[in-house]
Structure to design on (153 residues):
């Protein structure tokens, strides 16, 4: 595939690594865990690919498809829900033209995530944009943030 995967394999062999470390390295380099990368590494290390996919699908830190440049995370916990996170979510989905269970915009600029709790209930509704938590969010502020991100791309 490429020399990055060769380095990941070499690191595994030299340091008696583990599958979790391999997956972390793939995610760090590519931004997600591709099937091609898993099959290549599984073949090289004689580890069944299902072992990699089982771990990758268990931990929420791993992603099995490409993600957008900007990650928008909307809290769906009870306080956020009561204060309108569902409306914000719906408006963002519409703005990004995300249909059904799609979570990444066609231009690969945005990925939309829903989480059960961000842990900032006192400032709900809460949205994290590229890991920066913003409280007391509303639709107008959210659209401003999306427009700023589009302008900087």
């Amino acid at each position: 595939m490429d020399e990055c995967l060769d380095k990941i394999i070499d690191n595994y062999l030299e340091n008696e690594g583990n599958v979790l470390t391999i997956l972390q390295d793939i995610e760090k380099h590519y931004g997600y865990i591709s099937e091609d990368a898993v099959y290549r590494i599984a073949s090289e290390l004689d580890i069944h690919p299902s072992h990699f996919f089982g771990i990758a699908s268990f931990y929420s830190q791993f992603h099995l498809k490409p993600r957008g440049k900007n990650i928008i995370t909307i809290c769906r916990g009870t306080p956020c829900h009561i204060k309108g996170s569902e409306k914000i979510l719906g408006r963002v989905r519409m703005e990004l033209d995300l249909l059904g269970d799609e979570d990444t915009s066609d231009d690969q600029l945005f990925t939309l995530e829903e989480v059960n709790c961000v842990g900032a209930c006192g400032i709900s509704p809460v949205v994290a944009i590229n890991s920066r938590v913003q409280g007391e969010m509303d639709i107008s502020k959210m659209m401003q943030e999306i427009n700023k991100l589009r302008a900087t791309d």
In short: The chain has seven helices and four strands. The chain has two domains: 3-58, 70-152. The chain has a mean pLDDT of 94. The two ends are 28 Å apart (CA to CA).
